[in-house]
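Hi all, long-time lurker, first post. I run a small reading group and we've been trying to get comfortable going from sequence to structure in the token notation. Rather than ask abstract questions, I figured I'd post a concrete chain and ask someone more experienced to write out its structure so we can walk through it together at our next meeting. Sequence below, copied exactly:
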Amino acid sequence: MMTKLLKLRVALASLPLLGSAMAATSVTYDFESSTSGDLFGGGGVSGWSQDTANPTAFGKTIPLAYISTTNFGGGSSNAAHLGTQFANTADNSDTTLTGDLSSVNFANYLTASFSLAILDNSADSFEGRDGFSVALRNAAGQQAATIGFTPTVGVNESWDIRVGTNGSTSPTSLQVLGLSSYNFKIVATEISTSFSFGPGDLSTGNVGILNTAPITSLNTVNSIVFGHDPLADAGTSSHTLAFDDINVQNVPEPSSSLLMVLCAGLMAIRRRR
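-- Answer (accepted) --
Happy to help. Here is the structure in token form:
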């Protein structure tokens, strides 16, 4: 027995390349390199693109998405804003912001986390309500994992949550409230995809939303997309989706990493016999 344990220790010690291959690979967007007032349109925020042109009026650009300081509960910092606080397009079309993740090969594991809040100026008279979404998108332009927010029927400052994978979503029994901040997390493997969120650190007090189907071709995920869906008539809403502290990585949880190393070590021992 001692001989077998010694062989296992030697095998694990002889796998430095495995540790290097599992080194943390991630993309982080906290927008601190931007300045409050920077616009996403025209490549104004590094790593991001906006699909809809900003409208203009009286010779000025009216932003659909921009950087502004926001307090998600831990102090004010730069954050992204998307919505109709200042204006929407004349045809009331959707606007999406795309963050580049192409530098990461997710292989068979992905975790994505971000802070999010739906803001509304309670002092204005706009009563229309819009929808928003967050999605991981693959190289074919398809939504691999999606979280959708649609206005709750009969409740003015509440949005129902929908989640799903591979372009399909299902309703949940959960909501987010306006003017409240949340942390969301998506964990995807070859076996399943899980969604969770909470009002603070997701290690405590998080709410599981749904475990659902695995993402097809997980290794082709190359972007994260935040969308604004103007459900209300043009000029009747002023909702803004604020988001920050985006971190997307391909590193498994510590327990999963250890299991992979142990399995590799056992396989090495078996080959040596």
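A couple of things your group might point at:
The chain has a mean pLDDT of 82.
Residues 1-22+253-273 form one domain.
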